[in-house]
Specification:
- There is one protein chain.
- Helix content is 27%, strand content 32%.
- It is an alpha/beta fold.
- The protein has one domain: Rossmann fold, CATH 3.40.50.
- Helix 1 packs across helix 2.
Length: 170
């Protein structure tokens, strides 16, 4: 299966988070948010502002290990058994809480979080087909084979003008 890439800019992320907040408003009121770290932290902050929620808890679930730890090809990540390294204690069973993440991909992390917070509403910015059944609400569906490059994963780089590249080839 060929992998394609989709770059999400800061502006796009902010627009999508505000759109998600707008869709969540009629489902409230909510007591607070549980952000899935790390990707859900920034969307949770934006949504918290838009919905005037100041109680923001976090949960940290590790399901991807660096390749050097798993013995796979250097630089790649491999999905392993998910483990909760920080629980969202303030959220109880999830009653009145929103779970916010940037992306639901395979659904592995979402399933772990749902088991811990069965009464929460799960919302994310982007969803892939395998993860869709584990979220209540999302903004954009992306193909399963698409790798999303979030703004915190990329850095702007200088690219020389085409004329310089053409001159160097002569």
């Amino acid at each position: 299966m060929a992998v394609s890439y989709a770059t999400v800019t800061w502006d796009q992320l902010h627009r999508d988070a505000r759109l998600l907040a707008e869709q969540l408003m009629p489902m409230g009121p909510f007591t607070g948010i549980v952000a899935i770290t790390r990707g859900g932290l920034i969307p949770a902050a934006i949504i918290g502002r838009e919905l005037d929620l100041r109680l923001i808890e976090s949960i940290s679930v590790i399901s991807y290990d660096q390749a050097r730890e798993t013995g796979d090809t250097e630089g790649e990540e491999a999905q392993g058994q998910p483990r909760v390294v920080k629980a969202p204690t303030a959220a109880g069973d999830g009653t009145g809480f929103l779970i916010i993440d940037d992306l639901v991909d395979s659904g592995v992390t979402a399933q772990v979080v749902r088991r811990l917070l069965p009464k929460a509403t799960f919302a994310c910015l982007y969803a892939k087909p395998s993860g869709r059944p584990f979220t209540d609400l999302f903004v954009v569906e992306v193909p399963q084979e698409t790798w999303i490059l979030f703004p915190w994963d990329t850095a702007p780089l200088f690219v020389p003008p085409l004329s310089r590249k053409a001159a160097a080839a002569v």
